[in-house]
Structures are given as C-alpha cells and as structure tokens.
Known about the structure:
CATH topology of the domain at 4-154 and 183-215 and 271-279: Rossmann fold
CATH superfamily of the domain at 4-154 and 183-215 and 271-279: Vaccinia Virus protein VP39
CATH architecture of the domain at 4-154 and 183-215 and 271-279: 3-Layer(aba) Sandwich
Low-confidence stretches: none
Order of helices and strands: HHHHEHEHEEHEHHEHHHEE
Number of helices: 12
Structural class: alpha/beta
Number of strands: 8
Amino acid sequence: xxxxxxxxxxxxxxxxxxxxxxxxxxxxxxxxxxxxxxxxxxxxxxxxxxxxxxxxxxxxxxxxxxxxxxxxxxxxxxxxxxxxxxxxxxxxxxxxxxxxxxxxxxxxxxxxxxxxxxxxxxxxxxxxxxxxxxxxxxxxxxxxxxxxxxxxxxxxxxxxxxxxxxxxxxxxxxxxxxxxxxxxxxxxxxxxxxxxxxxxxxxxxxxxxxxxxxxxxxxxxxxxxxxxxxxxxxxxxxxxxxxxxxxxxxxxxxxxxxxxxxxxxxxxxxxxxxxxxxxx
Length: 280
C-alpha cells in the first residue's frame, strides 16, 4: 500500500507531465462533454457579488472565470491547482479579479478564514490525503462560509466512461486498478466515503445529491474514436499497448458506441454527486 506522500508525488508528476499535456490537448472536447455538470455546480455554488472564492483544482481556469463574473469587481477568486501547465493556461486569461497559484490543497498555505465559498468541479477526487486536504480547506473558510463541489459517482453508474473501457479491455494489456482509498476519477464515488472524509475534516450540514445528465462525446462514432485516446485511462492504456491492440480496441469501442449515436451526437449517461457542507 502506497503512502500518502507517494500518492501525492505521483499526482504531482502526472499532472505536471503527461496528464497536464493531455488535458490541454483534449480541453475543448472535455468542456463540451461536461458543460451541463458545470452549469449545475456553478448554480449550486451561487457565488455573490463581493465574495471571496477559492476554486480548488481549477485547471485552466474555466470555472474560475465564471465565478469571477459572479463575484464582480468587488470580489475575488483564487484558483489553485497542482499542475503548473494548467495554471499557466489559466493565468493567460488575465482575469482582473482572479489570481492563480500552483499548490497541493493538503499543504497549501491559504489565508485563514478568508473565503466565503470553496468550490471545486471534478478536482477533489485526486487528493492524495483527502482528510488533510479538506481540513486545510476548512481552515481557509470563514465561519459562515460554504463548501460546494461536484464529483463522479462509481464507474458502474457512468456509462460514458464504462462502456468504452469495457469494450477496450479485452484487447489491451492489463491495466492497474487504483485501490479504494487511492486518488482517481471515481475516488469519491462511494457516498459513505465522502461523508466520512468530510466529517473527519470538520464539516457539518452535509448535503449529497445525485446529478444525472447525458454527456455528448462527439458528433458521431468516428469523431469519438478519433479523440478517445487524447486523455484519461484509455489514453494511458493505449500508450502501453501495441499498435494492433489499439486498432482492435478502437474497433470494439466503435461497435459498443453505435447504440448511443443520435442525430445530435454520441450521448451516454453521466452520474455525479453534488456535495454541499459548511465548517463546524
């Protein structure tokens, strides 16, 4: 079993290396796919004029920009991410009322009791030590502040990821599976685990609501297959596979996706938790 230090080092290496590069390459496709989820969590956050907001795992700053619009000139948003390349892209926006810092949420020295809102869209699942990270985040919140984030439910409830992966696996080398406590895309899928982490970190008033939406993966199956190796678990699997294995895997994925092709694109279900809490 890996230590939290080892897991944190792995996450930093990945997001400052291949993960960051792949995310930037696939950015437009990813944003189109998760647009509906972004709208849901931003609405739930309900950032107000004049508020100070912390955007955790801000990536290239898309949500930071939306939060900055909401808080206006009298407010401010701090975007934090472990990835230097993604923060570089975020800073290029030159937002007047937002700033960006590279940092690990578990150790970053946030100003104490400084934020009205801590927000995250698909960032918290990658914490190497989630209790420590949320304890640090809680210290950054004002006593009357609020925490709002969105995370994926289990793979079995997310056909958008499970269908291609299930079709590809027989044709690819064995893939390492993360442990139940390891960081990863579905690390917060277990509702009981989310409740335990936040309670141990000192949060109360916990609300966990399911959010189910369709994700548009591309205009047609050919479009999806052209881009499916750009980012995520399949991108890593393709990298370790022989060319003929990748061809076979993509053919299998194409067959599996045919039932989901519509006139408006290839659409598969996605399932998330919308989580809200406040500091004790």
